[in-house]
TrEMBL record:
Alphabetized PROSITE patterns for the sequence: NAF, PROTEIN_KINASE_ATP, PROTEIN_KINASE_DOM, PROTEIN_KINASE_ST
UniProt GO cellular component terms: nucleus
Domain of life where this protein originates: Eukaryota
Coiled coil: none
The species this protein was found in: Sesamum indicum
Positions with a binding annotation for ATP: 41
Protein name in the entry: non-specific serine/threonine protein kinase
GO molecular-function term, one example from the UniProt record: protein serine/threonine kinase activity
GO process annotations (BP): abscisic acid-activated signaling pathway; response to calcium ion; response to pH
Catalyzed reactions: L-seryl-[protein] + ATP = O-phospho-L-seryl-[protein] + ADP + H(+); L-threonyl-[protein] + ATP = O-phospho-L-threonyl-[protein] + ADP + H(+)
Keywords from the UniProt entry: ATP-binding, Kinase, Manganese, Nucleotide-binding, Serine/threonine-protein kinase, Transferase
Keyword ATP-binding carried by entry: yes
Length: 419
């Protein structure tokens, strides 16, 4: 992929390479219409075909980040795809990693407090929505141009629906120096409590300039973590030491909670709670409740070239049965356009509205039944999906392609349609 003068769907101009990960490259890009900077994570689909765990992580990251609207969390704008690549378009955070800042020198308690307060605000928001990060560390905390913190990288995050019958999570994940002792015990853990532990390690690193638990021998490192063996530097204030002792409590049952953190004397100095409006805070408003959620699996699999057939049984067997297109328009406008186009064909189509944002169309002679639904992809994009439920495929084809589809598609599609 070229790093200069490449245009992505005539919407983003790709710029310099910002970084390379194990499975993705991240580029700086500019939205052509607005001039706004964004970051574009580029993933080769061929990597996903051969790695089910990696695909699951990508799905989870997209699904989770699409729900999050908080000033201290990196924003996901949209997900695009070609036949060979997936493009995750993210907020561009120009200040770099918090790790780079603390690597130069330890921070004062005042500056550390500011970053920690922003981290807890973001984490409180996530936990209230059943989302647990599970890989918090300075490398995953970015700083913007105003020196405000942004939490990133939700690839190892978990949702409430992953909690097992015992009320705990069981997947082992995270970065060794930041993992909680109960996770090492392999007996299940509370996602909120391990995030709090990681926050404690981060706060220690910010104010001390080094890790509380560190050893080149991994087993010795884990033993220190499990026993809670660390020493405070002499320059730490008594209030911070006491606070850290509660964050780095090896017993998850007595470890400080998010609500208790917010009431702690050291923490709450200068702290102002951020109020998130429900319609932008991950909780659907009335209009959004009528929309069917589009999960990350669908986003990734919409474009040709990624064979996911072995993972599920699809009752729609052929490409003639399904058509999907991506449109940058409000869902209610799309439904209205389809209704008008169908009603113009008097005596040809019976139209029934569905409770969700969708329609069902039936030929007058019952020679076909077709469902149309609108799924929200991002704040700006929706996917229109048409599925043939009964009847001959070619009977509806002319009406769809000649009459209905043209009134929906007024611009180049941003995701390759399956048809």
């Amino acid at each position: 992929m070229a790093v200069t003068s490449e245009k992505l769907f005539n919407k983003y101009e790709i710029g310099k390479l910002l970084g390379c990960g194990a499975f993705a490259k991240v580029y700086h890009a500019r939205e052509i219409a607005t001039g706004e900077s964004v970051a574009v994570k580029v993933i080769q689909k061929s990597r996903l075909n051969n790695d089910a765990n990696l695909m699951a992580n990508i799905e989870r990251e997209i699904s989770i980040m699409s729900r999050l609207r908080h000033p201290n969390i990196v924003r996901l704008y949209e997900v695009l795809a070609t036949r060979t690549k997936i493009y995750i378009v993210l907020e561009f955070v120009k200040g770099g990693e918090l790790f780079a800042k603390v690597a130069k020198a330890r921070l004062g308690e005042g500056q550390s407090r500011k970053y920690f307060q922003q981290l807890i605000s973001a984490l409180s928001y996530c936990h209230a929505r059943g989302i647990y990060h599970r890989d918090l560390k300075p490398e995953n905390l970015l700083l913007d141009e105003n020196e405000d913190l942004k939490v990133s990288d939700f690839g190892l995050s978990a949702l409430n629906d992953q909690v097992q019958a015992d009320g705990l999570l069981h997947t082992l994940c995270g970065t060794p120096a930041y993992v909680a002792p109960e996770l090492l015990a392999k007996r299940g853990y509370d996602g909120a409590k391990i995030d709090v532990w990681s926050c404690g390690v981060i706060l220690f690193v910010l104010t001390a300039g080094y890790l509380p638990f560190n050893d080149q021998n991994l087993m010795k490192l884990y033993k220190k973590i499990y026993r809670g063996e660390f020493r405070y530097p002499k320059w730490m204030s008594p209030g911070l030491r006491r606070f850290l002792s509660r964050l780095l409590d090896t017993n998850p049952e007595t470890r400080i909670t998010i609500d208790e953190i917010k009431r702690d004397p050291w923490f709450k100095k200068g702290y102002k709670e951020i109020k998130i409006q429900e319609d932008i805070g991950g909780i659907p408003n009335e209009e959004e409740k009528q929309l069917v959620d589009l999960n990350a699996f669908d986003i990734i699999s919409f474009s040709s070239g990624l064979d996911l057939g072995g993972l599920f049984v699809d009752k729609y067997k052929t490409t003639e049965d399904v058509d999907r297109l991506t449109v940058e328009e409000p869902p209610e406008n799309i439904i209205q356009k389809v209704e008008e186009a169908v009603k113009a064909e008097v005596g040809v189509v019976k139209l029934r509205k569905k409770k969700e944002c969708g329609l069902e169309m039936e030929g007058q002679n019952g020679n076909y039944v077709v469902g149309l639904e609108v799924y929200r992809l991002t704040d700006r994009l929706v996917v229109v999906e048409v599925k043939r439920k009964a009847g001959e495929a070619d009977v509806f084809s002319a009406l769809w392609k000649d009459k209905i589809r043209p009134v929906i598609v007024r611009q180049p599609e941003l995701v390759v349609a399956v048809n």
